[in-house]
Fold L,D-TPase catalytic domain-containing protein.
Amino acid sequence: MRRTVHFLLIAGTAVALAVSLPLILAHTGIASPRSSGRPAPASGATPQPPKAGAAPAPPRWPTLRLGDEGVRVEEVRRRLDRLGFSPGSAGSGYDPALRVAVWAFQKANGLPPVDQVDLPTWRALARPARIRPLVSYGGPARVEIDLRRQLLTAWKGGRPALVTHISTGNGESYCKKGHCGVAVTPTGDFRAWWRTAGWTTGPLGEQFYTVYFNGGIGFHGSERVPRHPASHGCIRVPLHNAKPLFRMIQTGDQVYVRRPERDV
């Protein structure tokens, strides 16, 4: 018997009605990576080998890497954007902005951040983990910084509005242009107190759209946001997320910095 999948769009959510097929992805038209989407052969039928000389069918869930283009990359981009992991401006290519969005999504879903959309990532895109708050008493507009996972979540109206990969203090001693210290991002409860738009230059380098919340420590856009802690203490944010984050967070908004022992 041939299986049929119907999609019904209700209030911006795709609902899949199928025979023994799970509800997988919203809005993207992506079926489950656990199913080929092909009808099962009739009972007792013998599978037929491919015709000689026929080109093999492309994988339904290909591994996507930096520089790739095409429909699947576009689907990943749209899916991440809807989930709050901004991949930057619209486009079809797997560019550096999409790569750091994939890192953030992977970390938020308990996966190691890797330079590809692999099968575990496809499965997580199908059934993403719920973003849980780091603090139970935070206000509706706040920033939460997870030092262990290197993730920043901006909350608006009590909902996660932007989740981004970050790079925080590396814990090393430094001296640069007469400014010495230890590269630590302290934990605690803070409030945004000073905001600088555009590019600014300080003793430790250039910063893009900075929001300070703990003396001279703040979160800002940077051209270098590696997968490991690498800053002098500030929270580096990918450039494409710096300006939207700056607009979301106003003076006086709460900023919570934590180092949880495990995923919340």
Q: What stands out?
A: The chain has two domains: 29-35+63-126, 142-258.
